[in-house]
Amino acid sequence: MTRPLSGQAAVDQLLEVLDLKQLEAATFVGESPQTGAQRVFGGQVAGQALVAAGRTVDPERFVHSLHGYFVRPGDPTEPIQFTVETIRDGRSFSVRRSTAQQHGKTIFFMSASFQVLEEGLDHHTPAPLEVPGPDEVQTMADWVRRYPSRKAAFNAAPRAVDVRYVNDPGWVPPGDRNASDQQRVWMRVDGKLPDDPLIHACALTYASDLSLLDSVLSVHGEVWGPGGVIGASLDHALWFHRPFRADEWFLYDCASPSASGSRGLANGRMYTEDGRHIASAVQEGLLRRVGERK
Q: For the Acyl-CoA thioesterase 2 C-terminal domain, which residue ranges apply (predicted)?
């Protein structure tokens, strides 16, 4: 059995996935890594859509927000075509609409806004206190040793992002998860990224979809998979507040203010190790008991 990519090799593959081929001035095409997944990972298509949008914008303008909708599941065996519409180029802001399609149908679309650097008021909510650091919590390998039945799933995909849960992850067996109002995870891209701020924003977008909905399940002590819940992202919004590097540790501090109607809402704040608030995310997902009618 071929061992999954990890470390810099996995990061290099992620960079290849984000390196879209330009067909025309506002048309791009991207591929998905062949991991055996049944559908395209949402963070991947969102990151690729941001790459496409960013390539049509003056590089002196930096993305500060994006809002996307997952319309259909993506087919990982087929290329994804991205079409970018210029909504506006003003003196300070540029707005783009990036649409991802397969087989002539939209699978995802995003609006993204870019801004020139400006000075202004500056404050943020402090990072949570008394959270153990990334070197003080279990690695994914530690969790797999504890739950060896999860090894196959863990090894099924390249590991470009080092994810370290502060509390219980959502893929432990039913009954093994303690309920918590907070889901906190340390993350970083597990290798070196280029210095391009757009690449770091796209990598953070990719990572932001890895554990956010998990906070909805955490409130109830629920888990993913058999005996628990299946889910899918419906929409995703992300705001970038301050400069950062996605290949340095950040704390993803997530919570769920509401769940009803088979939908759960989650929000997350991202902090650097020194406590700077670098980004915020909000996502709604479809959540159903395993075995319920789709």
A: 167-286
* Host H or E run for residue 105: strand 105-116
Question: Burial level of 167, CB count in 10 A (0-12/13-18/19+)?
Answer: middle
Q: How far apart are CA 203 and CA 160, in angstroms?
A: 10
φ, ψ dihedrals at 27, nearest 5°: -130, 130
- Extended beta strands in 156-293, E state: 161-165, 182-189, 229-240, 250-260, 263-272, 277-289
In DSSP terms, which residues pair with 130 in a beta bridge?
Answer: none
Tell me which residues are annotated as active site: 209, 233, 283
Q: Is pLDDT at 294 greater than 60 in this prediction? A: no
Question: What would the mean pLDDT of 233-255 be, rounded to a whole number?
Answer: 98
For residue 282 the two structure tokens come to: 């909000």
Place of tokens 């608030």: 277
* Plot region of 274 (φ>0 → left; ψ -120 to 50 → alpha; else → beta): alpha
**Cα radius of gyration rounded to whole Å, the chain:** 19
**Six-digit token string for 259:** 């769940």
Looking at the predicted structure, is the pLDDT value of residue 2 above 60? no
Closest CA to 279 of 108, 68, 127: 127
Q: Which two tokens stand for residue 246?
A: 């996605």
Buried b (16+ CB within 10 A) or exposed e, 35-69: eeeeebbbbbbbbbbbbbbbbbbeeebbbbbbebb
pLDDT digit string (tens) for 12-54?
A: 999 999 999 999 999 999 999 877 778 899 999 999 999 999 9
Contacts of 11 (CB under 8 A, 6+ apart): 160, 189, 190, 191, 192, 193, 247
Q: How many residues does the chain have?
A: 294
CA distance 255 to 90: 36
* Paired tokens of 17: 């996935």
